[in-house]
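Hi R.,

Here's the chain you asked about this morning:
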Amino acid sequence: MTISCDFCALRNTSKPTSIVGNGTPASCNQSALVAALLKGGINIFNCGSGHNITININVSLQISSINDTIIDGAGIATLNGLWRTRILKFDSGDFLYSTPTLTVQRLRLSNG
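And the predicted structure, written out as tokens:
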């Protein structure tokens, strides 16, 4: 299934809270992504220039239930659930008291 939105504006990610990776494909891994997502905020990837990257997800990624979270894959990142795990888990608790948001843009989710 593909979901796209040609008229949707991208969120500004020019001042990231966390950068997943240090410029090499190997540094873009589940552990780095888990650490970034726990903080919430703006999360981007630095996996090396022009490299498409697939990050295998073995345990569902918990999204911050306190802070708004943006995950921007920049069109290079794919999160692969390996047909055995839910990729993202977002439980904001009681929406009457807390309404953090999750924005996923330019990111592929597969086999989750």
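The chain has one helix and seven strands.

Let me know if you need anything else.
M.
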